[in-house]
Design a protein that fits this description.
With 245 residues, the protein is of the alpha+beta class. 49% of the residues lie in helices and 24% in strands.
C-alpha cells in the first residue's frame, strides 16, 4: 500500500514539474458559438490535430503538456482561422472579433502578434494604394503618371516589408518564430540568401529551414511561402476595385 501511495506521489510530482500550456479564448463572432476549434500542426508532412475544444457562449479553452515549444494554427473544423499560436509555457489568451484576432499573454505570442500587427499595416497600405491606383484611372489621369507614382510608393512599401520580415527572422533565429516566419513569408532569393548569411548555426540546422532553403534555391519554394506577403494586386482584384467591390 505504501509503495502504491509513493508511486502516486512521485507521478504527481513529475507531472507538476512538466511544462504545460493553458489557453483561454473569447469570441464575439456568433458563427463560432457552438463550433469546435482545433489546434493543428504539420507532422510528417500531414496536418495533424493536437488539441480541440468547443466554443460555449463565446468562450473556449485548451490545455496540455508541452514536449517542446512550437507554432500551431487555430482551425474551425477544417477551416483555418489564420491565427498562429505559439504553444509555450504559461497562460495564453486568444481574442477573436469580427475586425481583429489577437493572441497574447506569453513572450513569444506577444512578439509574434506585435510583428503581425506591423505586417498587417503594410498590407492595408498596399490595399489603399491599389484603391488609389484605380481611382486615379477613373479620374482620367495619364497611365504613365499613375504607373510612376504608384510604382514608386509600392516599391517603398515592399522595401519596408522586406526589412520588417528580414530583421524579425534574424532577431528570432534561435526560437520557433524565426524559422516559421522565414518559411511563410520569405519569397525572394536575395532576401533568403541574406538571411542565411546572417543566421545562426542553430537556425541553419533546422530541418524546416533546410528543406525550404533547398526548395527555394532550386526554384521549388512551397506555395505557402507567398501566402502572406505584401503583393501587387491581380487584374481581377483591380477590376473588383473599379467596380466598387
Amino acid at each position: 500500500m505504501n509503495k502504491i501511495l509513493y508511486a502516486f506521489v512521485v507521478l504527481a510530482a513529475l507531472t507538476s514539474c512538466a511544462e504545460s500550456y493553458n489557453i483561454k479564448g473569447t469570441s464575439s463572432v456568433s458563427l463560432l458559438d457552438g463550433s469546435k476549434l482545433y489546434l493543428k500542426t504539420v507532422k510528417a508532412g500531414e496536418l495533424t490535430s493536437i488539441d480541440s475544444c468547443e466554443v460555449v457562449h463565446g468562450e473556449f479553452k485548451f490545455a496540455g503538456l508541452l514536449d517542446s515549444v512550437s507554432v500551431v494554427n487555430l482551425f474551425m473544423d477544417d477551416r483555418s482561422l489564420d491565427m498562429p499560436v505559439v504553444l509555450e509555457q504559461g497562460d495564453i489568451s486568444i481574442r477573436i472579433d469580427e475586425a481583429s484576432q489577437k493572441v497574447a499573454g506569453t513572450p513569444l505570442n506577444e512578439k509574434l502578434y506585435e510583428f503581425k500587427e506591423q505586417h498587417d499595416q503594410l498590407v492595408n497600405r498596399m490595399v489603399e494604394l491599389s484603391h488609389r491606383d484605380a481611382q486615379m484611372l477613373l479620374d482620367g489621369i495619364d497611365e504613365a503618371t499613375i504607373a510612376e507614382e504608384i510604382g514608386r510608393e509600392r516599391a517603398h512599401i515592399l522595401g519596408e516589408e522586406d526589412s520588417l520580415v528580414t530583421n524579425f527572422v534574424i532577431e528570432n533565429c534561435d526560437n520557433v518564430l524565426g524559422p516559421t516566419v522565414f518559411v511563410m513569408m520569405c519569397t525572394s532569393i536575395p532576401q533568403i540568401e541574406h538571411i542565411m548569411t546572417q543566421a545562426t548555426e542553430r537556425f541553419k540546422g533546422n530541418p524546416m529551414v533546410q528543406e525550404f532553403y533547398q526548395a527555394a534555391t532550386k526554384g521549388e519554394a512551397p506555395a505557402a511561402a507567398s501566402e502572406e506577403t505584401v503583393g501587387e494586386p491581380t487584374d481581377d482584384e483591380v477590376n473588383k476595385i473599379l467596380n466598387g467591390e
